[in-house]
């Protein structure tokens, strides 16, 4: 646990400000240049407020104000706040995918914290990849840190109907393509579906990861459920600023909070809320930064005993605003009982159990009781088989149940462009029993493993009334999406995984209950296809992308860069293809935790 209270001269920032030499003269004179008297910062914790605000991040528009509230709290507690802008990762706008840049935010977070005179930090994120990116970097630096979740936006509204981010976009897009709604109605949806600050209010990646951050013990209790527009969100921002100052004095670091059990709590939370499949990739990566070997198999183990209690779209009916009014995450965690380990420590210095004590469910349709779950178990399922030696993922709660056990012929698209060009073609040989397969959509190939995994249903099937069919790719899928979509196939096709070998007409077999994904093609035939397979040209020739394609790990390892993982986490099993991919990069297998810079 935390150490005895620090003395001012033991602060990390003292090395910049407190010593009497030429360099510290420079630091003090330049701080004076910014208008601060030495009495405002000398001997006080210097707190970085890492802000992912930008003018293009629609989910973080309130962060310009929230950062002032955080700073107010830091000042009030006797700290010295320093706002630092970091990569914004605006999900709707950044192409090809924010996932390509999650590790860039993680690197930036670690390097900013390391290279400036910071004693602790507040991490301001929420829009999908910002939560894992900030946490990964902060864990590697391991200063006292606290997370400020952006909070969900208010319910969408259109013509008297409630709209959910993403989920209703896909739903009404399908209706438009099927000719069931007009262009004017589609425009009305466009203006009403996102009508306040905050992240997506469905159980997408943002709500999933901010809830997971709270279960990990990294936010003030109850914070992740508060809508961004609620005045209590602003109050919690100020309290977060106050708290980080105390965390610095007691030297309460992330390594004092994160354990294998706290990650189990986070996984259980994700499962109980029918959270985004993206959480698997992100939590694995976050855990591996903390030196904890969280595996996809652990997700599957916990899924078999965890009921889905959060009745939130896309798997359920309601939105995060309803979830907050129904009691929020604290109430859900109480209901999970012994499935949550309440002894785990959190950022406010109390255990998770102490933080959730007394929380109540106020609407047991929104937060179901264990006696009446939305789904009894299997919020997520991890599949393996000859088509996915290192695993694949499906979300059984968000698919048509007749597809849980399915067998059908593959219709293969070699990449996204091929799919876009042919999927709606009248002469595409496809039926409702077909299995749509998309290749080259993984971490290296796409690149960045975009959220393409909710592959479109061919228009001619939509017109016949088909709304779900089995679809398989090595992509991810937005947490706001739904359908019988097998995702995260590892190793990916681009590096020679078996998905690269599938041909039109091959029979694909899915059995969710048996956790099996099988290609009914003989081993000999697959070996012959593999021998004839030619590695495709890598997508990047310059810039950050080159680093990405050389060092990104496969989905089952979290898609971190191999040289940024904390040692001791490695050692989980992977297939020959996965190992072969690692060997293609200039792999560094012995990364070290962040070290302090020399100050000259
Ligand atoms: Fe930011 Fe969905 S677009 S969370």
Describe this structure in words.
The chain is α/β, with parallel strands linked by helices and 600 residues long. It folds into 3 domains: 44-154 and 196-356, no CATH class; 156-192, no CATH class; 381-532, IlvD/EDD C-terminal domain-like (Glucose Oxidase, domain 1), CATH 3.50.30. 34% of the residues lie in helices and 11% in strands. The protein has 20 helices and 14 strands. It has helices at residues 14-17, 22-33, 63-76, 99-115, 130-141, 167-177, 183-192, 205-215, 231-249, 260-272, 278-289, 296-303, 320-325, 328-336, 352-356, 416-422, 459-463, 523-532, 544-551, 576-584; strands at residues 46-51, 80-85, 120-125, 145-149, 156-158, 161-163, 381-385, 388-394, 405-413, 435-438, 471-473, 485-486, 507-511, 516-519. The strands form 4 sheets. A 6-stranded mixed sheet has the order 12-11-10-9-13-14. The chain has a 4-stranded parallel sheet with strand order 2-1-3-4, sandwiched between helices. A two-stranded antiparallel sheet has the order 5-6. Strand 9, helix 16 and strand 10 (435-438) form a beta-alpha-beta unit. The longest helix is centred in the middle third of the chain and has 19 residues, at 231-249. The chain is globular, with a radius of gyration of 24 Å. The two termini are 33 Å apart. The model is unreliable at 582-590 (pLDDT under 50). Residues 59, 91-92, 127-128, 165, 199-200, 204, 206 line the site of FE2/S2 (inorganic) cluster. Residues 570-600 are annotated as: Disordered. One of its GO terms (molecular function) is iron-sulfur cluster binding. Its EC number is 4.2.1.9.
């Amino acid at each position: 646990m935390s150490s005895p209270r620090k003395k001012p001269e033991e602060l990390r920032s003292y090395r910049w400000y407190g010593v009497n030499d030429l360099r510290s003269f420079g630091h003090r004179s330049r701080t004076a240049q910014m208008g601060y008297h030495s009495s405002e910062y000398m001997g006080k914790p210097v707190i970085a407020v890492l802000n992912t605000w930008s003018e293009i991040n629609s989910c973080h528009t309130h962060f310009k104000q929230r950062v002032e509230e955080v700073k107010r709290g830091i000042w009030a507690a006797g700290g010295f706040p320093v706002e630092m802008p970091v990569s914004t990762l605006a999900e709707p706008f950044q192409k090809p995918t924010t996932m390509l840049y999650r590790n860039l935010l993680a690197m930036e977070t670690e390097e900013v914290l390391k290279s400036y005179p910071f004693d602790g930090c507040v991490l301001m994120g929420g829009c999908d990849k910002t939560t894992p990116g900030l946490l990964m970097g902060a864990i590697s630096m391991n200063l006292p840190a606290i997370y400020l979740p952006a909070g969900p936006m208010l319910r969408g509204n259109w013509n008297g109907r409630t709209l959910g981010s993403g989920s209703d976009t896909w739903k009404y897009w399908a209706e438009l393509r099927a000719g069931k709604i007009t262009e004017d109605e589609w425009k009305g949806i466009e203006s009403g579906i996102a009508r306040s600050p905050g992240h997506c209010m469905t159980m997408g990646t943002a709500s999933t990861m901010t809830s997971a951050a709270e279960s990990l013990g990294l936010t003030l209790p109850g914070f992740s459920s508060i809508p961004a527009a609620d005045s209590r969100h602003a109050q919690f921002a100020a309290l977060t600023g106050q708290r980080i100052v105390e965390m610095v004095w007691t030297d309460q670091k992330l390594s004092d909070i994160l354990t294998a059990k706290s990650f189990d709590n986070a996984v259980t939370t994700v499962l109980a809320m029918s959270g985004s499949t993206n959480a698997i990739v992100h939590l694995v990566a976050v855990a591996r930064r903390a030196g904890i070997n969280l595996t996809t198999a652990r997700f599957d183990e916990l899924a078999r005993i965890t009921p889905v209690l959060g009745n939130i779209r896309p798997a359920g009916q309601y939105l995060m605003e309803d979830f907050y009014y129904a009691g929020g995450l604290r109430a859900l965690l109480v209901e999970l009982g012994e499935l949550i380990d309440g002894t785990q420590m959190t950022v406010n210095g109390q255990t998770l159990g102490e933080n959730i004590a007394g929380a109540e469910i106020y609407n047991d349709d929104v937060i179901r009781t264990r006696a009446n779950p939305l789904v009894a178990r299997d919020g997520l399922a991890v599949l393996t088989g000859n088509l996915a030696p290192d695993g694949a993922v499906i979300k059984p709660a968000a698919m048509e149940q007749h597809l849980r056990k399915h067998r059908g012929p593959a219709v293969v698209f070699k990449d996204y462009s091929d799919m876009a060009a042919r999927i709606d073609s009248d002469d595409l040989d496809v039926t409702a029993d077909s299995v749509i397969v998309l290749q080259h959509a993984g971490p290296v190939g796409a690149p960045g493993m975009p959220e393409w995994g909710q592959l479109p249903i061919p228009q001619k099937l939509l017109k016949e009334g088909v709304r779900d069919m089995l679809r398989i790719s090595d992509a991810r899928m937005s947490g706001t999406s739904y359908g019988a979509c097998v995702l995260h196939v590892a190793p990916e096709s681009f590096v020679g995984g078996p998905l690269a070998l599938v041909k039109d007409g091959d029979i694909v077999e899915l059995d969710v209950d048996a956790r099996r994904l099988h290609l009914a093609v003989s081993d000999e035939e697959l070996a012959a296809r593999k021998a004839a397979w030619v590695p495709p040209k890598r997508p990047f020739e310059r810039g950050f992308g080159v680093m990405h394609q050389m060092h990104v790990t496969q989905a089952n390892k979290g898609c971190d860069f191999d040289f940024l993982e904390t040692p001791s986490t490695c050692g989980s099993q992977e297939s020959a293809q996965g190992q072969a991919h690692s060997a293609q990069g200039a792999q560094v297998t012995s990364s070290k935790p962040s070290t302090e810079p020399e100050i000259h």
